[in-house]
Design brief:
single chain, pyruvate-formate lyase- activating enzyme, two-stranded antiparallel sheet, 16% strand
């Protein structure tokens, strides 16, 4: 396995990425490596929360607000077919993934701790941490017991854990296959005692269902169990979850209005619902109870890994100081990498929208290298976009 190194420059990250890919190609063999290189994990672009990692596809919990069935995933979860080493290889050859920097989010299209899935989740966490040192985060609606908390800490010692809850009053209706939120948050206490960071994930906030009493009670429970902060997440409407939410007493007309819709969403679409008023309540109540209010899930991940991130207008999540990418000497480290790759006499053009979304273009390279250059530009762009630095 490649030796760990501190990643300070594009060259550091590129060398580690090459070492990991080369070593894993030897481990997997040519045929398996070619197959894995075609997996979506090998080409998927990171979302704001990071590169999504799927230990399974589909979910059996049956939450009324779930949009996973609308994405075509089954209600009976299927553990993902890649092994831990195969997943690590897929991420290593993904041009958008930068070792030590790209955030990794587990649990987007399945519950990561379902029976039959939890072992795959642990296998993936170990592999991603050991091979690529990606800052990992999991979100769950299940109860994490002491044994699982200890396993998670061994798999990824800086893991960020989000405990999801939406309401206390209507939890049985909204989440028929899920333990009560009080038990889930108590499981978050086990995470804290395992010396991992745990935060409450108030997701989704549902106007007309989630109210101030829910928010106050859930934050009180979180504080009592030692959780450090709270992330508030919005509801996304789909054709089927809109119908199901009416069973919980939600005003579907009001939900469509808050989503800017006059008609139910079209099949295959997910439309976010404005929850600004509820998020303000969460922010105000978090301050009262001494919890950190976090603007997005990725903020919990950067804090858990003691990173600074300037990815978006909500950051930086640690220092609180505004940052302009163009204040840095970023051309010299990029030219250092180009020189290592044997690319001479090239120019680097870097543009940003304010301090966000850097675009990197390497100019003056022969057209025969177009594909390689596109991969290099994706890598550089992701390196600059994530822009994290150890405190």
């Amino acid at each position: 396995m490649p030796r760990r190194r501190e990643i300070k420059s594009p060259l550091d990250a590129w060398l580690l990425k090459e070492e990991v890919a080369e070593e894993l190609r030897r481990v997997l063999g040519p045929r398996r490596a070619r197959r894995v290189a075609k997996d979506p994990h090998a080409r998927r672009k990171p979302r704001p929360c990071g590169i999504t990692v799927h230990p399974a596809q589909g979910c059996s919990l049956g939450c009324l607000y779930c949009y996973v069935p609308d994405m075509g995933f089954p209600t009976k979860p299927r553990p993902y077919h890649l092994s831990g080493e195969e997943l690590a290889y897929a991420l290593a050859v993904n041009p958008h993934v930068v070792p030590g920097r790209t955030l990794a989010a587990f649990g987007s299209v399945s519950e990561p701790f379902l029976p039959g899935v939890v072992e795959k989740t642990l296998e993936y966490l170990r592999a991603v941490n050991e091979w690529l040192s990606l800052p990992c985060q999991v979100s769950t609606k299940l109860v994490i017991n002491k044994e699982l908390a200890a396993e998670l800490a061994r798999a990824e010692p800086k893991l960020s854990v989000l405990i999801s809850a939406t309401t206390t009053r209507k939890a049985k209706i909204l989440e028929p296959g899920v333990p009560p939120p009080q038990e889930r948050i108590a499981g978050g206490g086990n995470v804290v005692r395992a010396r991992l960071r745990a935060d409450l994930f108030l997701r989704p906030l549902i106007p007309g269902v989630t109210n101030e009493d829910d928010i106050r009670e859930l934050l009180h429970l979180a504080k009592r169990q030692g959780l450090e902060g709270v992330v508030a997440g919005s509801l996304r409407l789909t054709p089927t979850n809109l119908r199901r939410l009416s069973l919980a007493g939600a005003d579907t007309n009001e939900l469509m209005k808050l989503a800017g819709l006059k008609q139910p969403p079209k099949p295959g679409t997910q439309v976010p619902v404005s929850t600004t008023h509820l998020k303000e309540t969460v922010k105000r109540e978090a301050k009262k109870q001494g919890l950190q209010y976090l603007p997005a899930a990725c903020a919990a991940n950067t804090l858990s890994h003691k990173l600074n991130c300037y990815l978006c207008r909500l950051g930086p999540c640690v220092t609180g100081k505004k940052h302009n990418l163009m204040d840095e000497d970023i051309e010299s480290p990029i030219l250092e990498l180009l020189n290592h790759l044997g690319i001479r006499n090239a120019n680097v053009n870097i543009t940003t929208k304010g301090s966000e979304e850097p675009r990197v273009e390497v100019i003056g390279v022969p057209k025969t290298s177009n594909r390689k250059m596109l991969n290099l530009q994706s890598f550089l762009q992701e390196f600059l976009k994530v822009r994290v630095a150890f405190r």
